[in-house]
Amino acid sequence: MEIGRNAREASRVLGTAPATVRQAAIEGMAANLTAAHDTLMAANQEDLRAAADAQADQAFLKRLQITEKIFTYMVDRLHEAARLPDPLGIVLEGHTEASGLEVSRVSVPLGVIGIIYEARPNVTTDAAAVALKSGNAVILRGGSEAWRSNALLVSLMQDAIAKQGLPANAVQMPSCSDRQAVRELLRLDRYVDVIIPRGGKGLIRAVSSQSRIPVIKHYDGICHLYIAADADPAMAVALVVNSKCQRVEVCNALETLLIDRADAKTLLPAIAKALRDKGVELRGCGRCRRILPDLKPT
Prior knowledge:
Blueprint: H1 2-14, H2 19-35, H3 37-53, H4 58-64, H5 68-83, E1 91-96, E2 102-106, E3 112-117, H6 122-133, E4 137-141, H7 147-163, E5 171-172, H8 179-185, E6 194-198, H9 201-210, E7 224-227, H10 233-245, E8 256-259, H11 264-277, E9 283-284, H12 286-291, E10 296-297
Parallel strand pairs: 3-4, 3-6, 4-5, 7-8, 9-10
Antiparallel strand pairs: 1-2
């Protein structure tokens, strides 16, 4: 209950905090993260050792690990979030009634967001930055396997937030790593406005079935890329390869490619070769298989 009350109180402050203050807090989060590089890497190595001792598979360990590349990504994403335009107070639409009354729809914070996710520690900083940027308090419940990494990240972010005069409880995580903490979070409908689960189907179904709070959920991938007829061929190939191969294990990796029929005979062979060079298996519809007969059927 306390974590929910604290988040609700923090959300009331964040909702009226100046954009410059929220931006400075996120920039401070990036600075704190950079300064704590070695400490974070050590904590993550402890998480990795514990997960390996628990017989976690290699794919899971890869998601859990903070490499130098991922660390740089985390810092860069914080800077990028800080510099985004303020999303609050924007008049989305409006009109004036015959009586002269002006009616408008304006962007405002949701309030308190609960995010439940699996191994990836980089989600911790991503989610906190987006929540803070949009004036929302957030309760982060990452996987227990990343407990040490996440606890340090949350502490670093709370410090940066507090230095800007904002409530540190704008970003929180439960005090324990067992599943009971998830069940308790899902019952905090008095304080939490929306739950966002991020992970596999099992996690999302479990959260959806147990939550008293509205859930923003997805079960299946919808990761499509459309290549228009006038697309630059080199750029098209690069985008497809990056979308699929940069990190094939993530939930937003490319799954379905749509190519405009007007240019498919030129683009499809080049894209197929680039993907096959990376070890990607391709399946195609009838039209695609007429261009590339060796494609497996969908």
